[in-house]
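Reviewer 2 asked us to include a model.

Predict the structure of this chain.
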Amino acid sequence: MIWILLGSFALFLVLRFPIAFALGLSCLLYLVIADISLIIIPMKMYSGIDVFVLLSIPGFIMAGNLMNQGGLTEKIINFCNRLVGHIRGGLALANIAASMLFAGISGTAISDTASIGSVMIPAMKKEGYDAPFACAVTAASSTVGPIIPPSVSMIIAATLTGLSVGKLFLAGALPGFLLGISLLGLTYYISRKRKYPVHERSSLRQIARSFFDTFWALLMTVVILWGIIGGFFTPTEASIVAVVYALLVGLFVYRRLTVRKALVVILDSMKTSASLMVLIGFANLFGWILIIERLPQAVSSGILDFTDNPYMVLLLVNLLLIFVGTFMETIAALLILFPILLNVAVAVGIDPIHFAVVALLNLMIGLTTPPLGVCLFVAAGIGKTSIGSVARAGFPFSLMSLLVLALVTLFPGLSLWLPELFTD
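Predicted model (structure tokens):
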């Protein structure tokens, strides 16, 4: 019976159904053939979304949208341009630096690609950068977002397994910055080799003015992390604080946010949050069917029968998640696979926080990997170029991301040092 579920799910994906519909329809087909009462559908969907910490997701989505509509993206890009624009390939470097800064506000890779890419890709093309390179840089740097806190993906991972959201946020900080710095170094090397443009050096006064323009936006990330890690409020409360903060900054500091724009943000945030909750609900139903079919136990037994060496287990998990990430959206893959694989990791002595960061890094790499890398499609659409040319231009960035993944996998301290520092 399990093959009915998995086979129909794969078929719906091939037919390009939205991932939530593919999950729901495959579950429906399984339940009908297995003669299980359909009342289980609303029951399991409700139990999947009836988790307090999930309330933080609409808040963080809305906060990111408010800051974006309030002119934050342009201010961050301007600040990064002031800092690194005088270096060879400075606009490309500013693209990555802006993604690292914007990551702490958006928390999702796709919103990063769309927001920053809509400004940076046309600007880079106008300056003389190759369109595929501009798109590849944007797509690759956007994957830093879900690693550097706050992160929607980390909130979901914590919800699924009972891990601490605060610890996961801390665990992602160093790997996220390591990934960002590695991409900066690679971009600088390629820019020098291809002799990409150089901007005029900004004065200290211009840099300082740009910093103060961006300061209030960047402070939001500090407030969120300080509040969660310091125990002043929960992640759900932090998301509400972020919304209020973003609203005040957009209205009274940047003065780019109007009532009309705020209403558009609310509507967009509602749509995004609703679609995400439907996906989580169907994924919970899908996971329940996997459990009654004993697939998690079969996967665990299969891996543990093959090896109980922690590094070999991590290697197998890396290969599996990179493969899955090439054709499945990140959150869906996380919902379906993460609880199963975490049990295997814990069984061989791998720290669950470390494993969560490794899993997220894998799935982020999948966002820029053909055939269905979502960020590649978004960037290629903005740059009006073919997905194939963007994928080829992004190959060096994928290799650099894999190198960072290997380092984080082999050296758990990169992800565990900050959580241990703040909890000891």
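The chain has two domains: 1-38, 53-423. The mean pLDDT is 83. We have added this to the supplementary material.
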